[in-house]
Design a protein that fits this description.
Helix content: 25-40%
Strand content: 15-25%
CATH architecture: 3-Layer(aba) Sandwich
CATH superfamily: Acetylglutamate kinase-like
Structural class: alpha/beta
Strand order of the largest sheet: 4-3-5-2-1-6-10-11-9
CATH class: Alpha Beta
Number of helices: 9
Distance between the termini: 30 Å
Largest sheet: 9 strands, mixed
Number of strands: 11
Radius of gyration: 17 Å
Shape: globular
């Protein structure tokens, strides 16, 4: 196989923010974005990479935002977890339309909709080359889907977290507001914490630092980017211990 048909990683976890699914409409799920994402993931199947996915729920409901407006934080977070399940089921449907076998595993038991999260079962699905979508965060309030992504990645033995965003990597300030913002090609976890950069939340970054799990931050809206990273191209920003 050529380099462009062989993955540099065997098992990866892809973290997608819920806002990505909303596309330009800013809320809900854009069917075109969903279809395009499913197509990208289908390309990864040809690389025979074992793929797990964690999706946020910010396109439907954001717990932190609701709690800042007076809703009790735990209730708001549980509502946010349910939003991630809606996104997970939507992505599962889009993938299965393209004949890609998937399983949704939820940290909150909802037997009619998804399997309950069981680590060994998730690993078995991955070994059978099924895409596993982890929903409902960690199942606990006060923990973000970033933390859930870091936790699940370590539990399944992923070699890297691919963090798909709407911009080309990690910048010193928001590039959508400041065109002169400087992009970082590579960062250490310590630099991310020290500079207060928005890669993932502090709990997730610390978990990855302690367990030496690299994070690749990239623009998921640009077609082919996921495959390029898996084939060893440097795209976006790499966050590692060294």
């Amino acid at each position: 196989m050529s380099d462009m048909t062989r993955s540099a990683y065997q098992r990866v976890l892809l973290k997608i923010s819920g806002e990505v699914l909303a596309g330009d409409q800013g809320y809900g799920i854009d069917p075109q974005v969903l279809d395009s994402l499913a197509e990208e993931i289908g390309e990864l199947h040809k690389l025979e990479v074992e793929l797990a996915i964690v999706i946020g729920g910010g396109n439907i409901f954001r717990g932190i935002a609701a709690s800042s407006k007076g809703m009790e934080r735990a209730s708001a977070d549980y509502m946010g977890m349910l939003a991630t399940l809606i996104n997970a089921l939507a992505l599962q449907n889009a993938l299965e339309k393209k004949n890609i076998y998937t399983r949704v595993q939820s940290a909150i038991e909802m037997r009619q909709l998804a399997e309950s999260y069981i680590r060994r079962r998730a690993i078995r699905h991955l070994e059978k080359k099924r895409v596993v979508i982890f929903a409902a965060g960690t199942g606990n309030p006060y923990f973000s889907t970033d933390t859930a992504a870091a936790l699940r990645a370590m539990e399944i033995g992923a070699q890297v977290i691919l963090k798909g965003t709407k911009v080309d990597g990690v910048f010193d300030k928001d590039p959508l507001k400041y065109p002169a913002a400087k992009k970082f090609e590579q960062l250490t976890f310590f630099e991310v914490i020290e500079k207060g950069l928005k890669v993932m939340d502090a709990t997730a970054v610390t978990l990855c630092m302690d367990h030496d799990l690299p994070i690749m931050v990239f623009n998921i809206k640009e077609k082919g980017n996921i495959k390029r990273i898996l084939c060893g191209e440097h795209i976006g920003t790499a966050v590692k211990n060294k």
